[in-house]
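User: Quick sanity check before I run a bigger batch. Here is a single chain. Can you write out its predicted 3D structure?
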Amino acid sequence: MNVAFNKGFSGQARNDERCILIINGPNLNLLGKRETAIYGTKSFEEQLAELQAIYPALSIDYFQSNGEEAIINKIQESEEKYTAVVINGGAFAHTSIAIADAIRAITIPAIEVHISNIYAREEYRRNSFLAPACKGSITGLGLDGYRLAIEHIINALR
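Assistant: Done. Predicted structure follows.
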């Protein structure tokens, strides 16, 4: 697990709710079908249902897009409703300065998740533009990285 701390938690979301937004980038809509040796056989919808069952007191919303613009817009809108963002930018993590800038522009923290260990993969995947903009990064722990990110958010809000 690679962790870099940059942004702090500012407290609870509006209306005293703890709302977390999970954002997945390109091709993550194909989890369970695409490169199962790397990403596993579980769909993200199955993972989301498990997270919601583990954390019934949290509101966990999910957004996936293959488009950079839609992800940027969702990040920019996030601080209106959410306490924190968990983001797996997919391939955009390695290419998008614009998404990193959007994360830097919001006042709520973001935690980056990568299902695979990006440091054990191709050279071009070993750099994340998003990591320096996020409170921390979790890589290589499979879909459990999302749960670990949520656990960190819960503990930071206590």
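The helical segments are 36-39, 44-54, 68-78, 97-105, 144-157.

User: Great, the batch can go ahead then.
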